[in-house]
Amino acid sequence: MTSLSAVNNTLYDTLTAKLPPMLAKSLARAPSLPSLPAVALEVLEVARSPDASLQDYASVIEHDPALTARLIGAANSAHHLNAAGSACTGLEATQRLGTDATIATVLSFTLLKDIEANETAVPIWQRAIAAAAIASQLAQKLCPDRLGYVFTVALLQDIGVLALQMTFPAQAQALYERHDQSHMQLAQNERHHFGCDHTLVGAWIAARWGLPESLVHAINESHDSVFTDDNVAVCVRLSGPLADAWLSANPARAFSTLLYELSVSNTEHVVILEALFYAMHRQIALLSDLLKLAIPLPLDSVEVLTEAKQLLYQHALVLGARLQAQQETLEALESRHGQLLERSRIDPLTGLANRAWLEEQLHEHFARCRLEKRAMTVVFIDLDHFKALNDEHGHGTGDEVLQCFGQALSSLVRATDVAGRYGGEEFLIILPDETAESARQLAQRIMTLLDREPMARSEFGPLYISVSIGIACLEDGMFASEHELIAAADQSMYHIKRSGRSGVAVYGH
């Protein structure tokens, strides 16, 4: 392993500190963690440069005879039999393979030389190859100057899985052999078993190798949200879910779900994916064959994408219907809530505000009017001889009187006033921005209406009632609370009661 720079030492220590302590100790003691020889590190260093040529790759690779032989063998494989002549040198091999296949071949040769002996690693390496091929296709559209970098990060994004497999073979076999779990579920299970997922372990491995800091961070963030303005990150973070869809038992359904999730926030990415879909198939097949990693399902690109779009359309229709139903349910609930709220504020007999709502409104108006130095008046009303009326005519007639009086009050007050039944035969009117004099005028109109109109009828004829009214105005006293204001109006009302009933009294006047 190459020595780490001071900066990488700091990064390595930081990532070690982020690992769960027991996991950090186990990884540090593991005898067979994935490792990269100097030649592979130099190849990755070349890949960082947007101006790197195939000659640059060949110059590094030719220092390792075994790796050069592997590249030449790959270049002369069945995929390249139509090329004129055979590749005999590292440069000829890299020219024939291209950048992506060269990097993939180097890393697979150095990290997983005998893949057949490590069956649990096969699905992870298949995903890595598919993700790298997809990321490369995306990068050609979104960030062509970072193509080699994107390919490398996508290829290494799951390297932490190999490290966990090598360090905890028994646990890893049970964890990674479950084919019914998504990659997201796999990461959740890793956090449950190991205390973190493989992205952090992969970043730690990359820092241990001495890879550039940006590449280390990119591996650590490779499974983060795809909804970002960083095109390099988009290529890497989309590559994994797309690879999962490609390798799933039902690729069309998996693609339709992914396309829908993307279309909600970024239609541009959907358009790019559809345009690159067919190229992905060829690129994945090429890399898989070169690295002797058979993709489990030979896919028909046209058929899969067509079916995915149909499923996406059906999904959108179903979702639209569900949203419509949910909206209707929500509107019904809101209407029901409004009705219940209204009922909780209304006295059922008179249709006026009940006492609880009166007191809440009185508290709010009192505080606001006093703070803003505005006028406010309350009118306290008591029906005269109501007990005698009930005793003589019955409670049914008494209820009729209360109901009719409530309707009369509603017809006389403004929309900004609050009229309600305070209790029994007592009523209260809250008059914001009104003086005692205007309240007196309202009281007089109430009494005039009662003189003119009966509030009920009995077998003996129409029943007329009278009322005793007390008025208190915020301006006419040093009232510390709304309760003192009510008490003042109540006191004025009782003054009328004691004076013979059927009249109006104003507190302080």
UniProtKB/TrEMBL annotation:
<feature type="domain" description="HDOD">
    <location>
        <begin position="33"/>
        <end position="225"/>
    </location>
</feature>
<feature type="domain" description="GGDEF">
    <location>
        <begin position="374"/>
        <end position="509"/>
    </location>
</feature>
<dbReference type="InterPro" id="IPR029787">
    <property type="entry name" value="Nucleotide_cyclase"/>
</dbReference>
<dbReference type="Pfam" id="PF08668">
    <property type="entry name" value="HDOD"/>
</dbReference>
<dbReference type="InterPro" id="IPR013976">
    <property type="entry name" value="HDOD"/>
</dbReference>
<protein>
    <recommendedName>
        <fullName>diguanylate cyclase</fullName>
        <ecNumber>2.7.7.65</ecNumber>
    </recommendedName>
</protein>
<dbReference type="InterPro" id="IPR000160">
    <property type="entry name" value="GGDEF_dom"/>
</dbReference>
<dbReference type="InterPro" id="IPR043128">
    <property type="entry name" value="Rev_trsase/Diguanyl_cyclase"/>
</dbReference>
<dbReference type="Pfam" id="PF00990">
    <property type="entry name" value="GGDEF"/>
</dbReference>
<dbReference type="InterPro" id="IPR050469">
    <property type="entry name" value="Diguanylate_Cyclase"/>
</dbReference>
